[in-house]
């Protein structure tokens, strides 16, 4: 018994040490800096200011609340679209036809591209290619795509759906393949069509995957940084600035590291509360196969 416990801690130690060094210790240090006025420069004076940073977030910095609202709206739209498209793709590639496996790989490939590279790629499409099409056809709707808050928002949505739908597809494929064929066959014998099976069998049995998919897409949407930085840089005039980019600009643009850490704590609490609420609500609707 003692040997098994020793082996358990030996195997757990590398992951535990890495987690502590990369996540736990920096998080605790960040909590400390949130109550100071540190400017982020090593060797500079650090003064304890209590809850002043948290108060000033809501009284002095209006950009944080705008970024919060924009991120919330973006996350709602992105979560809905990513999961609908991902589920639709999963239903498509789990059908028995030639090339289904190839399509799985093609749909998943955008998820393998880094966020910055993906952002610059779509920036080229929205600016250069859309600009060339607008010039050739005279269609002004494609001109200055990222210079407008509305089309910039749509551009971020397109990028996000294109990148994350393939990942959600894999999550839903795994759950679809776990649905017993006997259940589907019994439904067919009883005269159920595909729409009936989708509504009464597939959708209820997909709830465990929906729980995971919603949680992952919510967290990814709220935490988006690379794509926002590369595609719009928060412009025009911070109209498309999301929370992660707003915190980054406060810390490394305005040299208000303590102030940015206070924002990050609020950000963490909000995302954790939304994630836990979603898990509780969707868990209640799960059914056993």
Structure description:
- The chain crosses the membrane at residues 12-35, 68-94, 106-133, 153-176, 197-218, 264-281.
- Residues 68-278 form the ABC transmembrane type-1 domain.
- This protein has helices spanning 2-33, 52-59, 62-93, 100-108, 115-137, 149-176, 181-189, 194-205, 207-222, 226-231, 243-253, 257-283.
- The mean pLDDT is 88.
- The protein is built from 12 helices and no strands.
- The chain is an all-alpha fold and 289 residues long.
- The protein has a single domain (23-283), classed as MetI-like fold, CATH 1.10.3720.10.
- The longest helix is centred in the first third of the chain and has 32 residues, at 2-33.
- The two termini are 36 Å apart.
- It is 74% helix and 0% strand.
- The radius of gyration is 23 Å and the shape is globular.
Brief descriptors of the model:
globular, mainly alpha, MetI-like fold, 289 residues
Could you give the topology of this structure?
Layout (H helix, E strand, L loop, with lengths): L1 H32 L18 H8 L2 H32 L6 H9 L6 H23 L11 H28 L4 H9 L4 H12 L1 H16 L3 H6 L11 H11 L3 H27 L6
Mean pLDDT comes to: 88
The span between the termini is: 36 Å
Number of domains: 1
What's the level 1 CATH class?
Mainly Alpha
Number of helices: 12
In short:
This protein has about 290 residues and is mostly helical. It has helices spanning about 1-35, 50-60, 60-95, 100-110, 115-135, 150-175, 180-190, 195-205, 205-220, 225-230, 245-255, 255-285. It starts with a helix and ends in a 6-residue tail after the last helix.
């Amino acid at each position: 018994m003692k040997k098994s416990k020793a082996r358990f801690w030996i195997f757990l130690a590398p992951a535990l040490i890495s987690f502590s060094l990369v996540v736990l210790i920096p998080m605790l240090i960040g909590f400390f800096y949130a109550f100071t006025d540190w400017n982020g420069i090593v060797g500079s004076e650090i003064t304890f200011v209590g809850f002043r940073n948290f108060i000033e977030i809501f009284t002095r910095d209006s950009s944080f609340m705008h970024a919060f609202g924009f991120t919330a709206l973006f996350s709602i739209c992105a979560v809905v679209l990513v999961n609908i498209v991902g589920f639709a793709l999963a239903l498509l590639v789990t059908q028995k036809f030639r090339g289904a496996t190839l399509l799985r790989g093609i749909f998943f490939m955008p998820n393998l591209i880094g966020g910055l590279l993906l952002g610059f790629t779509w920036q080229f499409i929205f600016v250069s290619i859309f600009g060339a099409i607008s010039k050739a056809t005279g269609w002004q709707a494609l001109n200055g795509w990222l210079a407008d808050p509305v089309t910039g928002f749509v551009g971020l949505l397109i990028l996000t759906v294109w990148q994350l739908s393939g990942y959600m597809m894999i999550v839903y494929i795994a759950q679809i393949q776990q649905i017993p064929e006997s259940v589907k066959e019994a439904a067919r014998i009883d005269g159920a069509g595909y729409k009936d099976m989708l509504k009464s069998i597939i959708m209820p049995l997909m709830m465990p995957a929906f729980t995971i998919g919603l949680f992952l897409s919510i967290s990814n949407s709220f935490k988006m940084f690379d794509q926002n930085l590369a595609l719009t840089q928060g412009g025009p005039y911070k109209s498309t600035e999301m929370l992660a980019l707003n915190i980054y600009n406060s810390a490394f643009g305005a040299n208000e590291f303590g102030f940015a850490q206070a924002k990050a704590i609020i950000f963490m609490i909000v995302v954790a509360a939304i994630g836990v609420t979603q898990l509780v609500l969707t868990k209640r609707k799960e059914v056993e196969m």
